[in-house]
């Protein structure tokens, strides 16, 4: 559906569509029109005009999320367009803002905010080339290093070194860009462009490098910390991290798989877990916690009870929770505030059906996202599930891939889902009757794609027809067999693959050495 454009926006589009004319005329443009021209240039992917607008930016702040978000003149949100042409032009324009020959004392820009850029799966930009979070981290670091080197060599206006612009960014550091990011952060105090890390994600890094770079980011400003793939952080390292570094503003924490493993706990480990819980309790802003693929059986209360602020997002998928854990969650003060909950990988109908529905009942007034993948939800449980979901009138997203449900049960469930007014995204399983007889759940990766594709397509069409007949074309329904889209993994999958192969090779070599020693 086309979004209406105001006459002002149409005029701005006409102005920037002739790049050569627009660039020559910028000196005559009123300062309050720069935001309008920026969004029009971004929509038309006029890289050169974007560069010149940023290079001559006359305002105190440059907030990309707000500039590209819905405005009076054009309601369309462009902040999910991570267009490489546009974003590179923004960042090089920022570098040239510092180098611009106009007097440094005329320059007003103090804050650049790049955190509002959203990385999504489907891009609508013409160039079809995206600049993800990792690439933005790489380019900004490179520009800061190059800018400082240039300023030290060239004869610049003395006031240039007095320019100080805070650049707020969500950093994404891996082995491949580690050296460059560290170089930029070490020189931060000398560079006019000051990298201010608001959110930090780390993949494929040794613990030593992770600890070093996280200290350089200025953790006192950090609101989101994601330690995800191939960072071998275990419980003792987490205790050291929280003991040596304070995160007063941290709102969101994601820990890597197997951070906790209670199966091999000693008395020392129990105390360590209590210490970690207490440290998290000191993070008074913490409202989002992801601890998937750890073994936390019977320890959820120890970890979460010290928290003073209720959690709004909790991911404890594949954490081997027992009845005591679920009972704690259902009765805790967190339950009434949970907007996003992931309990995937737990046999809910078998282990704790009533306790789960109690938790769902307590969170129903605020719950926006619910993920129950590989939870052994069968046809006989669908009516109970519908009863539990009925009060969840604010639910935006429901993911239940990997459950052994038949085509008939899915149709019944979809008929109900049409009644949830806020629902926008559903991820449903391949129906059980599309797989060969005797398939066991959870389905292993080798068997995941061995289903009747033609039958699946037919069922999927029927499910979409149910949505259509209920006037719910606004609901997206899909079956992502290998998990939901992760922009960070998509961007760095080559490096991730290389790291995994290297890790496997090292393990194999160790095994061979041990075997030879035995021989």
Automatic annotation (TrEMBL):
Entries under PANTHER family matching the protein: LEUCINE-RICH REPEAT-CONTAINING PROTEIN 14B, SIMILAR TO PREFERENTIALLY EXPRESSED ANTIGEN IN MELANOMA-LIKE 3
Similarity-based family: Belongs to the PRAME family. LRRC14 subfamily.
User: Which species expresses this protein natively?
Assistant: Scytalopus superciliaris
As given in the record, the signal peptide range reads: none
Q: Which GO terms describe its cellular component?
A: cytoplasm
For this UniProt record, the keywords arranged alphabetically read as follows:
Leucine-rich repeat, Repeat
Q: Report what the protein is called.
A: Leucine-rich repeat-containing protein 14B
Q: What is the lineage of its organism?
A: Eukaryota, Metazoa, Chordata, Craniata, Vertebrata
Q: Is S-adenosyl-L-methionine among the key words of this record?
A: no
**Has keyword Cell membrane?**
no
SUPFAM superfamilies named in the record:
RNI-like
InterPro entries from the UniProt entry: LRR_dom_sf, LRRC14/PRAME
């Amino acid at each position: 559906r086309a979004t209406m454009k105001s006459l002002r926006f149409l005029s701005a589009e006409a102005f920037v569509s002739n790049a050569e004319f627009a660039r020559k005329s910028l000196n005559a443009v009123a300062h309050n029109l720069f935001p309008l021209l920026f969004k029009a240039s971004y929509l038309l992917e006029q890289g050169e005009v974007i560069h010149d607008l940023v290079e001559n930016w006359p305002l105190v702040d440059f907030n990309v999320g707000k500039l590209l978000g819905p405005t009076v003149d054009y309601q369309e949100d462009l902040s999910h367009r991570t267009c490489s042409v546009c974003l590179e032009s923004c960042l090089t324009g920022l570098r040239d803002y510092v180098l611009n020959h106009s007097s440094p004392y005329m320059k007003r820009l103090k804050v650049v905010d790049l955190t509002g850029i959203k990385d999504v799966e489907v891009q609508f930009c013409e160039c079809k080339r995206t600049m993800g979070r990792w690439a933005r981290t790489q380019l900004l670091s490179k520009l800061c290093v190059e800018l400082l080197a240039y300023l030290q060599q060239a004869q610049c206006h003395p006031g240039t070194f007095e320019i100080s612009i805070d650049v707020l960014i969500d950093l994404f550091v891996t082995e491949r860009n580690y050296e460059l990011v560290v170089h930029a952060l070490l020189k931060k105090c000398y560079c006019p462009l000051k990298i201010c890390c608001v959110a930090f994600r780390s993949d494929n890094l040794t613990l030593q490098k992770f600890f070093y770079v996280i200290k350089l980011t200025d953790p006192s400003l950090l609101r989101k910390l994601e330690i995800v793939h191939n960072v071998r952080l275990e419980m003792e390292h987490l205790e050291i991290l929280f003991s040596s570094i304070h995160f007063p503003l941290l709102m969101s924490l994601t820990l890597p798989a197997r951070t906790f493993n209670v199966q091999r706990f000693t008395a020392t480990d129990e105390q360590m877990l209590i210490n970690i819980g207490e440290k998290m309790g000191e993070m008074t802003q913490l409202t989002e916690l992801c601890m998937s693929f750890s073994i936390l059986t019977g320890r959820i209360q120890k970890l979460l009870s010290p928290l003073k602020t209720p959690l709004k997002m909790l991911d404890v998928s594949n954490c081997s929770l027992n009845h005591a854990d679920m009972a704690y969650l259902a009765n805790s003060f967190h339950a009434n505030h949970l907007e996003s909950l992931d309990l995937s990988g737990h046999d809910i109908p078998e282990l704790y059906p009533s306790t789960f529905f109690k938790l769902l009942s307590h969170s129903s007034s605020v719950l926006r996202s619910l993920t129950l993948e590989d939870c052994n939800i069968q046809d006989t449980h669908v009516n109970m599930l519908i009863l539990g979901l009925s009060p969840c009138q604010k639910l935006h997203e429901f993911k239940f891939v990997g459950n052994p449900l038949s085509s008939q049960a899915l149709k019944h469930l979809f008929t109900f889902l049409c009644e949830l007014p806020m629902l926008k995204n559903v991820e449903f399983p391949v129906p059980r009757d599309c797989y060969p007889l005797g398939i066991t759940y959870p389905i292993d990766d080798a068997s995941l794609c061995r289903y009747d594709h033609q039958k699946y397509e037919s069922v999927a069409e029927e499910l979409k027809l149910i949505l259509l007949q209920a006037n719910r074309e606004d609901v997206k329904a899909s079956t992502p067999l290998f998990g939901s889209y992760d922009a960070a993994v998509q961007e760095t999958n080559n490096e991730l693959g290389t790291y995994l192969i290297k890790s496997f090779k090292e393990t194999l070599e160790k095994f061979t050495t041990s075997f030879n020693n035995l021989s």
